[in-house]
Amino acid sequence: MTFVIASPTGVAISPVIHGKIAEPALRFYEGSPRNDKREFMKKIILQLLLICSISVPPLAHAIPSKLYEPLSLFAKILYLVESDYVEPVDEQKLIEGAIQGMLNSLDPHSIYLSPEYFKELQVDTTGKFGGIGIELGSKNNILTVVSPIEDTPAFRSGIKAGDKIIRINGKSTKNMPIQEAVRLLRGPQGSKITLTIYREGAPDFKEIHITREIIRIKSVKFEKLENGIGLIRLVAFQTDTTSELKRALNELKTRDSDFKGLILDLRNNPGGLLEQAVQVSDLFLTSGVIVSTKGRRQPEEVHAAVAEDTEPHYPIVILINKGSASASEILAGALQDHKRATIIGETSFGKGSVQTVIELEGQRGLKLTIAKYYTPSGKSIHGIGIKPNFYVTNPKEFEQAVETQPQTKLDQQRLAAIAYLTTHKIPREWVSKAPKGKKNHDDNGE
Q1: Measured at the alpha carbon of residue 313, what is the angle toward residues 307 and 315, in degrees to the nearest 5?
Q2: Would you put residue 170 in left (φ > 0), alpha (ψ -120 to 50) or beta?
Q3: Alpha-carbon dihedral of residues 51, 54, 59, 65, nearest 10 degrees?
C-alpha cells in the first residue's frame, strides 16, 4: 500500500534517523492545483473506508477542507510505519487501531466492533453464555467492576463494585478496551480464570480464582419481612422483569393483608433494558415524565407514566449503592423526583448515556454514544449518579464478607430502610454526609 501525499509547500521531506539522512519515505508532488489536492484527499478517505469494508455514503465525497491537513498527517504516519517499522505490520490492524483510538478519545462506551467483537455483542442478547457474571465500566480509564451480578461466580468469589481489574490471566488491562476484556472473561463452562484486582483501601493487589459458568440471571427475588413490609430485589432489567415484579407484588400482598410498605433493593443492579426500567417506574406513577433522552442530533425522547395499571399508594424505600447503574438509576431517579420513594444508601454509579449499534459491512459494527439520560427534574445521571435522600453505608464487615449467604444482621442499609418504613426515622448514627466533589467514574471528560 502506497500513499502519495500533497504537501502544502510542495517540498519533499527526508527524515533524519540517528543523525543520518534516510531515503525519503514520502514524496510530495509539486505544484498541484487545489482541485487536484481535493480529489486526492477524497481518494485517501475512500481507501481508508474500503480498508475497513465500510459502505461509503454519498456525503463522504464532500470532504470538509479542515480534514485535509489531519488526514494528510495520518496517511504520512501510516506510510512511515508500514515502510520503516522494525517488523512487518498488518495494515488492517493499524487502521482498526487508529479507529479505536479515535473512539477512545470520546468515552469508554463508544467502540469499534471488529467481526470478532461484533459476534460477542450478539451473544450478549441471548442471555446465556459462559462467563463469571460482572458488569464492566471505566473509572479514570481503569477497567472497573460496575457490579457483580447476584448468584454468579464473580458474586460468590467476593468481587465487589468498584474493584479495579489490573490483570486477566496475567495479561495487563492497561488501555484495554472493555469489549476486549469481555472477550477474555468469557469462556467454556467449567474453565478457570484468574483476576488480579485492586480494592480501595487494600494494602496490595489480590488474585481471585474463578470458575466460569453458564450465566442465567433471575431478575426478581422477593421476601416478606415483619410489620407488613415486603422486600423485592431487582437484580437486572430483562425482558420479563416487569411481569415478574407484578407477580412478586401480588404474592406479597396476598401473603400479608396488612401490607404497609415496600423496599425495592437496586444495589449492585447494573441496569439492562430501558423499556423495562420505564415499565417498572410506570407501575408506581400515575402521570409525569419518567425519563428523557437528549442528544446532539437525535430529537428529545420523553417516556411518561400513565394512570392505567398503577400500584396503590403505599410507602416505598429504594436501596442503591455505587453498583447501581443505568436502568436502575432511571427507576430510582424517577421515583425520587416524583417524591414517590425515599432513596437510602450510597450515590449510584452514574451510567447515564445511550449507545446505538450501527452495523457495518463485513460483519463489523460501531457502538456509539448518541444521547444522555435525564431525570424528570432535568438532572443528568451521567458521571454524577443518583444521590440518596439518606446517605447510609454498610460496615466494613458486611462489604468484606463473601456474600454466599444473606448478611442481614450486618446490612445497615436494609435495616435503615425497615426503620424508616416502620417509624419514619433512621438512627442518627447510621446516617453520614455524602462525599462531595467526587465523581463515581470518569468518561474521559464527559
Answers
A1: 140
A2: left
A3: -30
The conformation of residue 431, written as its DSSP 8-state character, comes to B
Q: Name the catalytic one among 37, 139, 322, 351.
A: 351
C-alpha cell, 35: 482541485
Q: Which residues contact 110 (CB under 8 A, 6 or more apart)?
A: 103, 355, 367, 368, 369
Low-confidence ranges of the chain (pLDDT < 50): 1-32, 37, 40, 51-56, 59-61, 125-127, 403-405, 438-446
**Catalytic option among 147, 281, 326, 353:** 326
Q: How far apart are CA 64 and CA 66, in angstroms?
A: 5
Element (H, E) at 359: strand 353-360
Three cell numbers, residue 291: 425519563
Give one DSSP letter per residue of 383-417, joined into a string: TT-PPPSEEB---HHHHHS--SS--TTT-HHHHHH
Maximum Cα interatomic distance, the chain, rounded to a whole number of Å: 90
Q: Which residues contact 436 (CB under 8 A, 6 or more apart)?
A: none
Is 351 one of the annotated active-site residues of the chain?
Answer: yes
pLDDT digits (tens, 9 = 90+) for 406-433: 566 789 999 999 999 999 999 999 999 8
Angle CA 241–389–233, to nearest 5: 25
SS3 370: strand
pLDDT at 425: 94
The CA distance from 223 to 233, in Å, is 9
Backbone angles phi, psi at 45, to 5 degrees: -60, -45
Q: Which of 163, 265, 282, 337 is catalytic?
A: 337
Instruction: Based on the residue annotation, tell me whether 377 is a catalytic residue of this protein.
Output: no
* CA angle at 250 for the pair 244 and 256, rounded to the nearest 5°: 135
Whether the Cβ atoms of residue 366 and residue 115 lie closer than 8 Å to each other: no
- Angular region, 169: left φ>0, alpha ψ -120 to 50, beta rest: left
DSSP labels for 172-222?
A: E-TT--HHHHHHHH---TT-EEEEEEE-TT-SS-EEEEEE-EE-----EEE
